[in-house]
Amino acid sequence: MLSSGCLRAGLEPQLCQRGQVLLADDFESLEDVPARWFFREQWTVAQGALMRAGIPGENKRVFVKKPRYGDCIIELKVAFQGAEEIRIMTGTPGKYNAVVLLWPHGFRVTTARDQTVPHFPTIHGECAHQFERHRFYQVMIEIFGEEILVRVGDENHMVVGSHPILDRERDYFAFQVDRPGAAFDDVVLASATGRVEGWEDSFRKLEELQARRPWLPHEPGEQQKIREIIARDQLYRESAVFRDLVAQTEERKLAAARKFPEVFRAVKERRKKIALESKRLIAEDSAYLALRNGINKLKRSEVELLHLLHPGLKDLPEARYHAALAEAREKSKETTALQLVTANREIMERKMRSRYPHLEKSDQELLSESRLARSKVANTPNFKLATRAVAEAVRKEKEVVMEEARELEIVFAREKANP
Description:
Layout: E1 6-7, E2 16-25, E3 37-38, E4 43-46, E5 49-52, E6 60-64, E7 72-80, E8 86-92, E9 95-103, E10 106-111, E11 122-128, E12 136-144, E13 147-152, E14 158-162, E15 172-177, E16 182-195, H1 199-212, H2 220-238, H3 240-259, H4 261-264, H5 267-284, H6 286-309, H7 318-331, H8 336-355, H9 363-377, H10 381-407
Parallel strand pairs: 1-12
Antiparallel strand pairs: 2-16, 3-6, 4-5, 5-16, 6-15, 7-12, 7-16, 8-9, 8-15, 9-10, 10-11, 12-13, 13-14
Helix pairs in contact: 2-3, 2-10, 3-10, 6-8
């Protein structure tokens, strides 16, 4: 059971002045859970909180539909209930922006990569914090212009940072949990109208405190990765020479991709091609359309049958419906009627895969297509020349990053010995 108390110190904004409240949800009443939250089966509302349910699945998200905000204050309570990682995610059109990662032993504040600006991702800092399981802790995230301040639980557990990528309009707000379970409550998203008076002095003091504090414990390989991420971002922001190296690498990669598109075509691009082919078949192939419609009809029949087997299911609010439907499917899996409908759907899906195998490819199969294309040209002079040029540019860029990473004074906490 969740603890009724929240370990909080009445956090008040230090960076931002509060503006208009854009959303405020306490999840106390199912009838009042707003339609702005997009639910899937891994999420539900129970015990007066938004919860990552026990339905299996990795890194599942719940998000607000089409938010619009810029400078902001985000407040919420969060509780670990078995999860190992919780992410609070913001984003700009088509890209992630500020992301806060919470672990049972601490938290990290990052900014993501956004080629539309462009900038590299970075890690602003980490702070140790022991989250007691099933107990709520307050989180406050403040973003104004290029600055961010994140506090968890009290004033002493904080990460502060600054990055040009933060000064953006946002249209994405989500929670991601790696596995069951976690709980969220008293979620507030408000606009920010200005900086708090005296913030400049506070920022300097917080930076100094953060610089003296060790980072969380990490394995040596992860420590090196952190150094390189920070070094690459700093170099790109501060060095015109390094920006030229990055541009040269990108130009050579693009040139190689233009000459050998099948070799360098990304999985995402191949998926787009499959989606276009599916649209064409819907318009031109009656057999494909009949199979597709038949599968969808049987899927609807499964849901309708579950509604009959579990009276009241279809009347649940969306906040609980998807998780309840998944639970009902699991409870009824031995029911003969459901098995018949499911078996018929699976037969039609096998027919679909057999007749249109190019529409049912896994990521590994799509990657294999690129590898096969590479094997066909690997020994040709033009391909060797193109890949050698890319490798040389990458090597130069990497050497500069490694040198900068060696100069970074980052102290990591030591792992505690197991008793």
